[in-house]
Amino acid sequence: MLVIFFSVCFGYYGLWLWLPELFKRIDLYGGSPCLKSPAGINGSIPVTPANESCIPSEDVYFEGFLTAISNLPGNIFATVLMHKLGAKILLSGSLVFSGVSVFFFWFVSSKTQSLIASCAFGGISVIAFNSLDVLGAELYPTHLRSTAMGIQTGMGRIAAILGNVVFGLLVDTHCAIPLLMVAGLLVIGGLAAIKLPNTKGMALH
User: Fold this and answer.
1) What are phi and psi of 142, to 5 degrees?
2) Mean of the per-residue pLDDT values of the chain
3) Tell me: the pLDDT tens digits for 8-47?
4) Is the whole-model pTM more than 0.90?
5) Which of 93, 152, 125, 141 is CA-nearest to residue 19?
6) Residue 37, by phi and psi: left (phi above 0), alpha (psi -120 to 50) or beta?
7) Residue from 195, 41, 198 nearest 134 by CA
8) Share of the chain residues as helix, strand and coil, in percent rounded to the nearest 5
9) DSSP string covering 144-185, please?
10) Which run of H or E residues covers position 51?
11) Per-range mean pLDDT, top range of 23-32, 62-71, 168-177, 180-189
């Protein structure tokens, strides 16, 4: 569970908090933020025009709203199918598909495509968080549950901080590096979830 918590928090928060920056680069320079610019400079290190304003456009806030509200379908999906499929299957599947959706950021060529990929990532990855909450209650006995969840949550906070810092450090080297790292970690977390016991229909103790 610690490996899974680390993977999902590192991947989710590492990418999610940097989406506005990727949107901005696509808007200013066009194409994928991970491709080379016409000038031959790494697409992750764009040349900043001298007259560029530091004030973000209003589109950034609207895009942030859309990516945030994209969690709603994922929450509904998890609520409806949690007890039908089980938290383990939802957790593993959502992490693997989240990793795949991050990988496709490499191929986006417009802001619209990037926004669609971001909404897909948000809607899928939120299922993993819901599944983790359910599994945390079902895997551990009552006298250990609070301690176990506290340790896991602490690991998640550390992973979120590391993900945000590492993504920021690597995005100007080449944004493909942090994107592939996030995608790989999410897939690893999904594969690790397969090893968890199936708690569907189990009585809590």
Assistant:
1) -55, -40
2) 80
3) 899 888 888 887 777 777 766 666 666 544 444 444 444 4
4) no
5) 125
6) beta
7) 198
8) 75, 0, 25
9) HHHHHHHHHHHHHHHHHHHHHHHHHHHTTT-THHHHHHHHHH
10) none
11) 180-189
